[in-house]
Design brief:
This protein is an alpha+beta fold and about 300 residues long. It is built from 11 helices and 15 strands. Helix 1 runs parallel beside helix 9 and helix 4 runs parallel beside helix 8. It starts with a helix and ends with a strand.
């Protein structure tokens, strides 16, 4: 009992060191969803993509029990989790689907997976994916589980654990079994979450940006000059001035496409509002508009910014 109390206290102290704790959402991982048949297959460009069907998954009784146990573990450590069901009921997902970009001149479009839509609605800082298997051990069972935390903006893994709990009687609820199994691994896991969020607060969120020229017959490209400066350099200078500590990396640069990754964007603007990729790109869009350059903000997820230049 003393060990449990000390671990809880350590978690609360870790959160209190910073101005705010990260918001977290729990989702079942793709391996578990696929094993249970909670997936959808979509054909994209001749390739079949498999996406989790979270609406069906969250009707699963085992997942409900696991979620209850996991919520308890994280709440005790100062990390209350966003509830998928509550978010699902409060948001109109059909409206989110309609926001997928359709170019006025090209008819191009960007589709979103169910995960993209959920994250865009809930805007959690961190996504925790969980999967588990019940192993029969005589009259008992043990629980093997895997837990991975992902930054919802960069989609990078920031913490992970795979472990198996001690055998428990078959009558033990799954919520109690997962709670017990997770106890020995949560100290380091939660420390990694807070270290990551401390880095985000200090150095900005990591995102990626893609800018492309729409071929509408105007002859515009990133080498076109405006006021004696090439468009590609105008964008580079804007990125330099508006990223956190001027931190970003040019991934590729051609006449018709610019791609940047490891783009560090401040968490909040001057008024204290949180900044996502679409809002960040809107600043560049406004800057280009002031130079007489048309652009459409086609950003599709929290951490992926896109600008279609030459179209509006």
């Amino acid at each position: 009992m003393k060990k449990i109390i000390s671990l809880i206290a350590a978690g609360v102290m870790a959160v209190s060191v910073y101005a705010e704790a990260p918001s977290i959402m729990l989702l079942p991982d793709k391996t578990w969803c696929n094993a249970q048949g909670y997936v959808n297959q979509v054909d994209r460009g001749g390739k079949t993509k498999v996406y989790e069907d979270y609406e069906k998954a969250f009707l699963d009784q085992e997942l409900t029990q696991v979620k209850t146990g996991v919520n308890s573990v994280f709440a005790q450590r100062g990390f209350p989790l966003k509830d998928f069901g509550a978010e699902q009921e409060s948001d109109d997902l059909d409206e989110m689907e309609d926001e997928a970009f359709e170019g006025a001149e090209t008819g191009s479009s960007y589709a979103k997976s169910s995960s993209d839509i959920i994250i865009a609605n809930a805007k959690p800082d961190i996504i925790i994916k969980i999967g588990w298997i019940k192993n029969s051990v005589g009259f008992n069972y043990s629980l093997s589980y895997r837990l991975e935390a992902l930054d919802s903006y960069s989609n990078k893994s920031i913490a992970a654990v795979t472990s198996e709990g001690a055998p428990v009687p078959r009558t033990t609820p799954l919520s109690a079994a997962i709670t017990e199994a997770m106890k020995s691994n949560m100290d380091e896991f939660c420390t990694q979450l807070m270290n990551h969020f401390a880095d985000v607060q200090a150095n900005g969120r990591e995102m990626r940006m893609n800018f492309r020229i729409i071929d509408n017959g105007s002859g515009l490209n990133f080498n076109t000059e405006f006021g004696g400066k090439e468009l590609g350099n105008i964008i580079y200078d804007w990125m330099h001035e508006n990223t956190q500590d001027h931190r970003f990396t040019e991934r590729s640069s051609t006449r018709n496409r610019l791609a940047y990754h490891q783009v560090r964007v401040p968490m909040r603007d001057a008024s204290g509002k949180a900044i996502n990729a679409k809002q960040f790109v809107a600043g560049l869009q406004a800057h280009l508009k002031s130079l007489g350059i048309r652009a459409e903000n086609t950003s599709s997820t929290l951490g992926s910014g896109s600008l279609a230049i030459g179209e509006k």
